[in-house]
Every structure is written in C-alpha cells, then in structure tokens.
UniProtKB/TrEMBL annotation:
UniProt entry keywords in alphabetical sequence: Phosphoprotein
Positions bearing 4-aspartylphosphate: D64
Protein's UniProt name: Response regulator transcription factor
Domain Response regulatory span(s) in chain numbering: 13-129
Species whose genome carries this gene: Bowmanella denitrificans
SMART domains attached to this UniProt entry: HTH_LUXR, REC
Pfam families registered for this protein in UniProt: GerE (PF00196), Response_reg (PF00072)
Domain HTH luxR-type: 154-219
InterPro entries registered for this protein in UniProt: CheY-like_superfamily (IPR011006), EvgA-like (IPR051015), NreC/VraR/RcsB-like_REC (IPR058245), Sig_transdc_resp-reg_receiver (IPR001789), Tscrpt_reg_LuxR_C (IPR000792)
C-alpha cells in the first residue's frame, strides 16, 4: 500500500460514476476500506453532474468512459470544464494506449483499468488525491509517447471554454440550431449567438460547422 493511503486523516467525498451496480458496489467497498468518507454513486453522466452540483466538497470522481450520456471523452471534458477543482480518475475496461493517452491529454488525473487489483485502486486514488497523474506500471509507456499535435492543441482550446460554452458546443456538434439550443437551455437566442461567437474565437475556426466537426473528430471517437 502506498504511504499516501495511511497518511490521509481527513475523509473525502467521492463519486463512483458507472452504470454497472455490481461494479459500483465493489468499488465503493474498496474506497470505504481505504479512505472512509462519503462515497456517492451515479449511473449516468447527468446523475454525476447532479451530484457535483449538490455536493460542493466532492474531491474525486471515478468515471467510466462508457455509460449513459458519456460518449467518448465528452463526460471527462464536461467535468473538467464545469468542476476544475475535482480530480477525475478514469476507470474503464478499455486498455487501448491511444485511449489512455487521449484521456490524460484531456484532463484525466489518472487511468485505472477495471482489471486492476485492489492495491492498484488504493495506489491510484492516493496518487490522484496527492495531485499526481497515475497509470499502472505496465501502461506508463503511453505517457512517454507524443500525442498528436492537433489533438493536444484542441484539448488546450477546449480548456478555455466556460461550462456553458462547452454545453453549447456539444449541442452544435449534435446539429442543433441556435434557436433549438436556446429553447433547450431556456435562454435567449442572442445569448446562444454570443456563446457561439466566443466558441469560434477560442477554437480558432470560422463557422459552427467546423467547430462541430472538430468536436466529433476528437471527442466522440
């Protein structure tokens, strides 16, 4: 067990975001044994965001890449944009090096395969809560590989968006018009136009079509 586990004196509040009840239960028991604190559960991206809006002291989200509402890296980026102070540890059955590298590029604090043993879970959580980036030893090679320049640049640009702008960008990528987005978000269409203008400027594109294409290319693979 890593020293960070035994040095934690303050209980933390964490969210396990996964749509498989048995996995959530097993992960919750593991976290309670090592961390104590208040471990919340969510079965979709929407329910995860609801918990974060309700509980302002959540320190850690353990996020499954494949659950309702979470397509590709959209869930990760939603959390990073909306709650930059919350650490996000990806917990996934996917062990493709490209997927891991992309998740880290887009702001994940660590990447934990679901096949990992209990001691890896404890090490990963301790490292992430200490502000370090964590991947299993056998996958650390992915950190030394250079990410594609365009993808890395897009990740940097996305980090400049506000939570509302990110939400609007996702709807643009889904093909919604400004007036449809305004209706969905219950705001004036002029507000959406302002958001879109800011999005285009921050992404360095000339129209909403290009913005939507970029989003789908990098976020929904």
């Amino acid at each position: 067990m890593e020293p960070g586990i035994t040095n934690m004196t303050q209980p933390i509040r964490a969210v396990i975001a996964d749509d498989h009840p048995l996995f959530r239960s097993a992960m919750k028991q593991a976290l309670l044994n090592s961390l104590g604190g208040d471990i919340l559960e969510a079965d979709s991206l929407d329910s995860t965001l609801t918990l974060l809006a309700r509980y302002h002291d959540v320190e850690l989200v353990l996020l499954d890449l494949n659950m309702p509402g979470n397509q590709g890296l959209t869930g990760l980026t939603s959390l990073r944009n909306g709650y930059p102070g919350v650490q996000v540890l990806i917990v996934s059955a996917e062990e493709n090096p490209d997927t891991i590298r992309r998740a880290l590029d887009f702001g994940a604090s660590g990447y934990l395969p679901k096949s990992a043993p209990l001691e890896c879970i404890e090490q990963a959580v301790a490292s992430v809560l200490d502000g370090e980036q964590w991947v299993p030893e056998n996958l650390k090679a992915v950190l030394t590989q250079n990410s594609a320049s365009a993808e890395r640049d897009f990740a940097d640009q996305l980090s400049q968006l506000t939570p509302h702008q990110f939400k609007v960008l996702k709807m643009v990528a889904d093909g919604l018009l400004n007036k449809q987005i305004a209706w969905e978000l219950q705001v004036q269409e002029t507000t959406i136009k302002q958001h879109v203008s800011a999005i285009l400027r921050k992404l360095n594109v000339i129209n909403r079509t290009q913005a939507g294409v970029l989003f789908k290319q990098f976020m929904q693979q």
